[in-house]
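User: Sequence recovery, please. Input:
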């Protein structure tokens, strides 16, 4: 009788394990999406220096996937292939709206600033009116810099050619933008660092506009930390530990900027094969601020620009559930750091 009871117990264990153990194994993996870029500095550094591993613990496996554009990263969040990611405000907002507010949450900031409108010196672009008939590149249709440029020209009564206007906007990959700039096939580009500094240093471009000048206090969110909502609900403990590491790395970058630039430069070369000069790194960092503050007020304005550009449908959107800073504020409180409002 005892043997039968033990056998039944063992059978019950294996049945239950077949139902639930695979989920437990899945829970031990956290899947991260990011770009090999200085605006994603915390993830680049944290992966290289094993900071996230130290905070998550040895039993948690970190699986990373590199992306070149925000929209494709958001698709990976939709499909459940990415749990936490760094991405620009416009793709994050678009993903939130497309999913009816269900797919993702903004849980922290990653970078402020670092976007430039760079023009050729012989383009004769000295003011907004000079953009008529010009060819201006942005990194991708509907990405953060693309939305910012469309919002900028709208303020001066200009429209893209595809909307019946006079400004040619060319959504291109960043490497293609640099090459076409060198070949004088485009007149300017609205890009994020380090591409702005690369165009200036490698293609003889000049700054027409630093986007910081358009924002109150010179601060705006250029990169966010987002989480897949289902993962946040299922494993808030891992999300909080990730955020604790994110805060630690952000503060370390401010305390050790020279070492941070060295680590980031080495990792960008290892991940993408691109070697950034010391001049480019210094210039790019001078225009970019690593931060865990998502600067929520700038997200509202980005959403307005995206809506006016026709990327968010016909109805005004409600972003009240987009940002969730509960876990970040718990981390900040535990470290006696100022908490953030939504």
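Assistant: Recovered sequence (342 residues):
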């Amino acid at each position: 009788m005892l043997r039968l009871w033990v056998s039944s117990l063992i059978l019950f264990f294996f049945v239950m394990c077949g139902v639930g153990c695979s989920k437990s194994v899945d829970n031990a993996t956290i899947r991260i999406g990011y770009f090999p870029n200085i605006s994603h500095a915390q993830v680049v550094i944290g992966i290289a220096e094993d900071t996230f591993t130290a905070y998550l613990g040895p039993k948690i496996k970190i699986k990373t996937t590199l992306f070149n554009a925000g929209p494709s990263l958001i698709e990976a969040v939709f499909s459940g292939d990415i749990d936490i990611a760094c991405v620009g405000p416009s793709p994050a907002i678009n993903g939130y709206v497309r999913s009816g507010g269900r797919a993702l949450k903004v849980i922290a900031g990653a970078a402020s600033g670092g976007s430039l409108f760079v023009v050729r010196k012989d383009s004769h672009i000295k003011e907004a009116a000079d953009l008529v008939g010009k060819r201006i590149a942005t990194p991708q249709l509907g990405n953060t810099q693309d939305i910012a440029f469309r919002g900028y020209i709208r303020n001066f009564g200009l429209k893209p050619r595809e909307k019946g206007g006079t400004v040619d906007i060319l959504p291109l990959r960043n490497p293609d933008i640099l090459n076409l700039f060198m070949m004088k096939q485009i007149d300017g580009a609205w890009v994020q660092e380090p591409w702005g500094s690369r165009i200036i240093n490698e293609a003889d471009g000049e700054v027409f506009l630093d986007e910081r000048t358009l924002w109150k206090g010179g601060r705006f969110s250029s990169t966010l930390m987002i989480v897949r909502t289902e993962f946040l609900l299922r494993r808030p403990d891992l999300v909080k530990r990730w955020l604790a590491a994110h805060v630690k790395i952000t503060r370390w970058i401010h305390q050790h900027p020279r070492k941070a630039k060295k680590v980031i430069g080495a990792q960008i070369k290892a991940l993408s094969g691109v070697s950034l000069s010391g001049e480019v790194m210094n210039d790019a960092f001078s225009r970019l601020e690593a931060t865990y503050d998502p600067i929520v007020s700038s997200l509202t304005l980005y959403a307005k620009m995206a809506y006016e550009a026709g990327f968010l449908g016909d109805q005004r959107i409600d972003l009240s559930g987009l940002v969730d800073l509960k876990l970040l504020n718990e981390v900040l409180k535990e470290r006696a750091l100022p908490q953030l409002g939504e």
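Residues 181 and 198 are 11 Å apart (CA to CA).
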